[in-house]
Amino acid sequence: MNTPAPRAARVTPISGFPEYLPAERIVEQYFLDVIRETFELHGYPSIETRAVEPVDRLLGKGGDADKEVYGVTRLAADEDEDAGEVEFGLHFDLTVPFARYVLENAGRLSFPFRRYQIQKVWRGERPQEGRYREFTQADIDVVDVGELSSHYEAEIPLVMAEIFAKLPIGRMTIQVNNRKIPEGFYRGIGIDDITGTLRIVDKLDKVGPEKVQGMLEEAGCTSEQAEQCLALAAIRTDDLGFVEQVRALGVEHPTLDEGLEALSRVIRTGMENAPGALVADLKIARGLDYYTGTVYETQLEGYESWGSFCSGGRYDALASDGRTTYPGVGISIGVSRLLGLLLGKGLLTASRSTPACVLVAVNDEEGRPESTRIATALRSRGVPCEVAPKPAKFGKQIRYAERRGIPYVWFPGAGEDGGDQVKDIRSGEQVDARPDVWQPPAEDLRPQILRREG
RNA sequence: GUGGGUGUAGCUCAGCUGGUAGAGCGCUGCGUUGUGGUCGCAGAUGUCGCGGGUUCAAGUCCCGUCACUCACCCCA
């Protein structure tokens, strides 16, 4: 250890790659626990896919994905190899890897196949608040062979509604639409460019109805057609009332009928099983082309400007090997984005920065074995604890606990009869206790996730 | 990718028209010879992001560069 210490390289954060402090991580882990438990409560098994996919598969979905894909190369790769060719890239969502996984394992999976997947994903875009280059997503999807029953489109948002109800966050609203509604509606009024029109209407929240009207007319719509599109997009109901409102616009098309029926099933299921969680919102489009039926977007009440924390939809061709097509429906929570907001705004904190509920004090180094035995006894009954690092003055040991938010300090042999005592350092109350029977109040056993109104 | 802002102690920041590096919080010790939080006293901590230039002299002015950050685009 006598190397002359080289000047330490300055450490700097890397933009878009967030790292939490222990107290924040406790909040994140709580969220992940709730998400996982709820997914499993609904019978979803878990898979994990590798972090990399072949670049051509990542780019295969088309669009402008290429800019956001991180390539993975070996630093020692031959320099005379074609440096421009990167074989592997980090996945930028969990849907593309899942589709590949389904194809690869089709012979060994039972269909309809459902799974959940909670993993990091990477996107090489400019980060800003709530948008990162490395972040965690939690997905559920159901995929079948050839045909996928539509009831899954109604069941999948119930899982997310249950998660949002359990988490100590505000009110989450899952907004649902069915692409067949605008598609049939547009065709019914003589618009042919369905996706182009959807893309424009999708900007409604950002630019407002006047601009959308103008953009639609620029794209070739008559002003009557544009007005009709805006009238459809304005419909939003938390019950089946949207059907009547669409009918009142007087447009007829078989695809429109299909869409209204499908969305009605979703909303009805929501009303029965997760009252208040779902709302039919006919302006929800989702920019991505591959959604074909139901689409979901989720907003946190009071933070609508933060956009969607949880979205997804139905794909009629999630995966295809050329002979067989696998339709699917899925929905995904942006865990990092949600936490980034809630922690960043100080709306959530953990009651302590460690799982330890008890600090077992050490009287002197000769007493450490006794303290360790006490800790072992507490742990054997599920009480998280740690032993003090040094036999410092008790004031120091108490302060060690206080700094970390550990609520109890255990004093070996402090009782009048030579037995132990445990002190609640918040109240100062100190009582006789035995390590083989003492139990903290249930709310102290684990760190609490505290919500601050803000 | 385009445009703005900011880089000084562990953190938040001050530092004027260039003249020897500061505060608060936090941290350590003591008051308090084994039960914290309050209070008082004492103390430690800096490649002033990096490189170059101007100058007798640069945290300060100029050029470059890097990083972080905000907005646009797009998404979770």
UniProtKB/TrEMBL annotation:
PROSITE patterns from the UniProt entry: AA_TRNA_LIGASE_II
Family the UniProt entry places it in: Belongs to the class-II aminoacyl-tRNA synthetase family.
Class of the enzyme per the UniProt entry, highest EC level: ligase
Quaternary structure annotation from Swiss-Prot or TrEMBL: Homodimer.
Highest taxon of the lineage: Bacteria
Record region (Disordered): 415-454
Record protein name field: Histidine--tRNA ligase
Keywords: Aminoacyl-tRNA synthetase, ATP-binding, Cytoplasm, Ligase, Nucleotide-binding, Protein biosynthesis
PANTHER family: HISTIDINE--TRNA LIGASE, HISTIDYL-TRNA SYNTHETASE
Oxidoreductase keyword on record: no
Swiss-Prot/TrEMBL catalytic activity: tRNA(His) + L-histidine + ATP = L-histidyl-tRNA(His) + AMP + diphosphate + H(+)
GO CC list: cytoplasm
Pfam family, one: HGTP_anticodon
One GO molecular-function entry: histidine-tRNA ligase activity
Residues that, per the record, bind L-histidine: D93, L94, T95, R123, Q137, D141, R286, Y290, Y291
Gene Ontology process terms (BP): histidyl-tRNA aminoacylation
EC number: 6.1.1.21
Biased composition (Basic and acidic residues): 420-435, 443-454
Domain Aminoacyl-transfer RNA synthetases class-II family profile stretches: 27-355
